[in-house]
Amino acid sequence: MRLHIVHRTSYHYDTPMPYALQRLRMIPKDSAGQRVVRWKTEVEGGSKQVEYIDHHNNHVELFSFNPDQHEVVIHCEGEVETSDHAGMVGQHGGSAPLWYFRRETPFTRPGPAIRKLLRQFDDPGAANGDAPRLHALSELVRGAVAYEVGQTGATTTAEEALNAGHGVCQDHAHLFITLARLLGYPARYVSGYLLMNDRTEQDAGHGWAEVHAQGLGWVGFDISNGYSPDERYVRVATGLDYREAAPIGGITFGKGNEAMTVTLTVQQVQAQQ
């Protein structure tokens, strides 16, 4: 399957912004199940300072905003060829060792509610296979946190989402990662795109989790949808949590208010006859 993606992020400032530096992780990875056919990133009102591959094998670009801008637009567009590998990403790579992915972060720090939930887990055990065990863990998370937009935010932790009982894909992934690490698995967050069945226009990208299992390597789990990523998914960036895999992050200097608008389309490119 070939997917065409257009992702546009606009920042508007009510007073001119004297300086801003943004880190972009918006270039998809060539990996098992996907090949980047073409991709370009353009920034209106800014200029690229440097680009590099980080310790997660993410392609990172640093852009500085031109001084005294009222509006800056980040525009990404490209095509990615995908295939269904049942969520299998392959063996570990990159400079970060596997033990690094067992570390907790502020987003994934287990509290009393998470530890209580794990005690309620009807664990089939690793002896019966890591994949069935992790799918059962995914169902545990889905049963504990209902998918509901607008009830959590970018800074909501896994413990807070569980206590609230609702959240979105970011919250599901953080909670699943936290529980997987408590069971001894290396786990990480994935940011990317998903081809929807009912629409091409979306409000934001998608997030899911990957766990490293012995003999399998990294395996993806989309907790919000209840299955492993297939040819409808495009992996862009990975990290210990959303903060390390976020498409855009950075610093700004100025006293004005910022308004952000995101438009995203993901659609299948039809084969030419």
From TrEMBL:
Q: Where is the Transglutaminase-like domain?
A: 161-225
In terms of Gene3D superfamilies, this protein maps to:
3.10.620.30
Cross-referenced InterPro entries: Bac_transglu_N (IPR013589), Papain-like_cys_pep_sf (IPR038765), Transglutaminase-like (IPR002931)
SMART domains linked to this entry = TGc
**Which Pfam families does this UniProt record tie to the protein?**
Bact_transglu_N, Transglut_core
> Highest taxon of the source?
Bacteria
PANTHER family noted in UniProt: BLR5614 PROTEIN-RELATED, SLL1049 PROTEIN
Identification of the protein by name: Transglutaminase
Q: Which organism is it from?
A: Blastomonas fulva
